[in-house]
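Reopening closed ticket. The problem is back. First fold of the pair:
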Amino acid sequence: MILEPRFKMAEKTHGGARPGAGRKPGSIRRATAAAQAKAAETGALPLDFMLERMRNPEAPMADRMDMAKAAAPYIHAKLSSIEATGPDGGALQIIINKPA
């Protein structure tokens, strides 16, 4: 059973998505760029500090591990989990060929 709306919505005459509109992927806001430039001028950035502490062989290993954990998300992308399925969403068939 399909329900019909009581009132028909008017066609949109403006607004909505347009090709080429909006911020480009990976672009940085002017305020963000200015803040990064100012932080770089005044000294080491927090990530620089974490990496320096992590690479210091004289620092305690616990501190080095904490810095590595804190810096990792800024350097390495987090992998997303995926579900592997076979054809039409069925079971995945694994075939192992032994070399002759």
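Second fold of the pair, where the issue appears:
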Amino acid sequence: MDLLEDMVRKAGLFPAFTDIRYMLFSKSAFTEALKSAAKRRRDIILVGLDEMFFARAVLRERRLPFDIALEADPFFSESNLAHLRKVKADVKAGRNISVHDILFFH
């Protein structure tokens, strides 16, 4: 906490800088007081050994060191896109259109 307080004091020597972030690095661990301060304040960034190794891997490999697998959105599935194309063609041709009353909800 003393280091953070010292950084805040020194940053105060530069009043022209208003958007200030405090980034602290640790090879072992951060104190509970520092972790608590980082949770309360958005201007404190704590970087531990895991984050440093992650950043090193990203920079060295120039990619994320793991693969991301996302499920395909069913809206963009080929069967749904084919259905949407058919509905669009039907609307343009005036086919399969039915008129409905407008419902108003209050």
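Update: turned out to be a display glitch only; the data is intact. The mean pLDDT is 91. The two ends are 56 Å apart (CA to CA). Please close again.
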